[in-house]
From TrEMBL:
<dbReference type="InterPro" id="IPR036397">
    <property type="entry name" value="RNaseH_sf"/>
</dbReference>
<protein>
    <recommendedName>
        <fullName>RNase H type-1 domain-containing protein</fullName>
    </recommendedName>
</protein>
Amino acid sequence: MNQLKGDWPCYDKVHSRWLDRIENCIESMRISPAYEVIPRKENSEADDLAKKSINQIYIKSRIKIEENIGDGEN
């Protein structure tokens, strides 16, 4: 979250690509997000997904995020 807010730099290449995608989507939607830290105890779903990612557990998505979101080609 601190990297999305611009408070911290991002040095990881993969993470940086995701941040770029998120920032492009935000820009294309012309929104100004407000970020708020939600404690793990109050957001068990996100905490579970983070733990699975760290442990390299495959997560099957129910939706597909298109690369061209917001560029007028949908």
